[in-house]
Design brief:
This protein is of the alpha/beta class. The chain contains nine helices and twelve strands.
């Protein structure tokens, strides 16, 4: 079957007129200048090109805009560390740092702040240097940022005051032995009194096969939960993006994880030697029934369909750490 579009019909009409005998061609009418002016006045303004399309979008840019809040996180870590230890936070390590956006913002907050970003994927670190480090930081600030292409299972020579592990990145460790080894190395990489802070997620909603959509400027962010095994807690997830022109970027990021429970995480923190292991629970926005970004220390959690928390542990050795009230 032959499909003919409007464009095809227009081309055919032009070709047909060009081959008509001269005596059969219609005499062209003279243009009416007043009508032309009226038509121009009624002409609609040209649409701006879409901000993103599949062919122009950078998946790291989309991820940063839809998932991360680096300045807010950096300020929260500073406040929490100061409140917990009584000291200013000056050395942050960001494990599984990816594009190192959090590290960049932490360095910007204070002239004495230093950050170490650790990631095993060198192409992503190179992207970070080009698109985040150089545009966001001046020369002095860049000197206070170190990006390390290495496994987070290795102990680094530079001691940190706080190690942040965000976006559930530790979930790549599918076995208890591997996660325990990581936590032990994190403990060894901290100063006395230093803090390890990892986000965690859970609730029956995160185990469901579903796709959530969030609208952003120029694109939609889609979080897909593809599969969940209740025996092994193996979970498969993916991030997709859809653009205003109808194009899609599927499987921009795909995750093969284990869904760790907070009970397991707290036990492992304690096993490797962390003290004062506790949970910071995110509050609820009553208007939207979603998280409000405010985290408070809780001993008993709410039985919500879905939740995000921080699991926190402190390395022993800081004077008065057991007497200081936290969170």
């Amino acid at each position: 079957m032959l499909d003919i579009t409007l464009a095809d019909e227009q081309v055919t009409a032009r070709c047909y007129k060009q081959h008509m005998p001269r005596n059969k061609r219609s005499t062209p009418k003279k243009p009416n200048p007043r009508r032309s002016v009226r038509q121009k006045a009624k002409a609609k303004p040209k649409r701006k090109p879409p901000r993103f399309t599949k062919s122009t979008a950078d998946r790291h840019v989309l991820y940063q805009e839809s998932v991360q809040a680096p300045e807010r996180d950096a300020r929260f870590f500073q406040r929490y560390y100061q409140k917990t230890t009584g000291k200013p936070l000056r050395v942050l390590r960001e494990d599984f740092c990816g594009t190192a956006l959090l590290s960049c913002w932490f360095v910007k907050l204070h002239s004495e702040n230093r950050a170490i970003g650790v990631d095993l994927h060198n192409p992503t670190l190179n992207w970070a240097r080009k698109h985040n480090v150089k545009p966001l930081l001046n020369e002095s600030q860049q000197q206070r940022l170190s990006l390390v292409n290495d496994s987070v299972l290795n102990v680094l020579p530079i001691k940190a005051q706080l190690i942040a592990v965000l976006n559930f990145s530790y979930s790549v460790f599918h076995t208890r032995a591997l996660l325990r080894a990581y936590l032990a190395n994190a403990l060894a990489s901290l100063d006395a009194g230093g803090i390890l802070l990892m986000d965690a997620w859970g609730g029956p909603d995160v185990m469901a096969h579903k796709t959530d959509r969030v609208r952003h400027h120029g694109f939609d962010y889609l979080w897909e939960q593809r599969a969940y095994d209740p025996i092994s807690h193996h979970i498969e997830c993916a991030i997709h993006f859809e653009f205003r022109d109808g194009t899609k970027l599927k499987n921009a990021f795909v995750y093969d994880w284990r869904l760790w429970t907070m009970a397991e995480l707290r036990e492992l923190f304690t096993e490797v030697g962390f003290a004062d292991v506790h949970v910071l629970w995110e509050g609820t926005n009553l208007a939207t029934s979603t998280g409000n970004g405010a985290f408070r220390r809780k001993e008993v959690g709410d039985n919500d369909p879905a939740f995000i928390t921080y699991v926190v542990g402190q390395k022993p050795g800081c004077k008065g750490q057991n007497n200081r009230r936290r969170g």
